[in-house]
Design a protein that fits this description.
The chain is mainly α and 189 residues long. The chain has helices at 3-13, 17-28, 32-45, 47-53, 78-87, 95-119, 126-135, 140-148, 163-169, 180-187. The chain is flat, with a radius of gyration of 23 Å.
Length: 189
């Protein structure tokens, strides 16, 4: 079951909006200690809500319990919502026109991202930098260990979030496809 299904079922079962907010907090916490605190808070307010939540394995819906080999930490469907809004105006077009519009949008996106990568004066991506400075990853204990060892947190960010990996992701070009009428003229010669 996906987090959105869990939330929908939870909200229909438990009408307390304060607890619903705590569910999202639990799903997004980056460490087990914060998760346990949030769970205890829900348990204090409504014990059967906490028990209901724990029927679904936390590995499926709580970020702190995601498999460590995964390099994405999203617990929502924002990616699919972004895609849907990106293609909204093209949805009703014939398939070839739809695919051509996708290709063009992707070409523009790759060029824009490459320009962004070229301007970057950091060893890690802006997303990784934001996590280090705003969201609290890594936790204060890891930061204390880095400071004790005279190390920097950004030196311990996974390679997937490096400037080098970002450049590799946008290194390829998508070439324009010639107009079909041009191809027909060449064939008819």
């Amino acid at each position: 079951m996906h987090i959105l299904d869990i939330v929908a079922n939870f909200m229909s079962t438990f009408k307390n909006h304060k607890i619903n907010w705590k569910l999202w907090y639990m799903a997004r916490t980056a460490n087990r200690a914060s998760f346990e605190q949030a769970l205890a808070s829900v348990r204090e307010e409504l014990k059967n809500a906490a028990n209901w939540l724990m029927l679904e394995p936390v590995e499926k819906w709580a970020r702190h319990a995601f498999e460590s080999s995964l390099k994405a930490d999203h617990v929502s469907n924002n990616m699919s919502e972004c895609f849907n809004s990106w293609v909204r105006e093209d949805r009703d077009k014939p398939i070839l026109q739809l695919l051509e519009n996708f290709r063009r949008k992707i070409m523009v996106r790759v060029c824009e991202k490459w320009a962004e990568v070229e301007k970057l004066n950091d060893t890690i991506t802006p997303y990784a930098r934001e996590n280090l400075t705003m969201i609290g990853l890594p936790c204060m204990h890891a930061i204390a260990a880095f400071m004790y060892n005279i190390e920097y947190a950004h030196d311990h960010v996974h390679w997937y979030y490096s400037n080098e990996a970002w450049k590799m992701a946008y290194n390829e070009n998508i070439n324009p496809i010639p107009d079909e009428s041009r191809n027909l003229r060449i064939l008819n010669r």
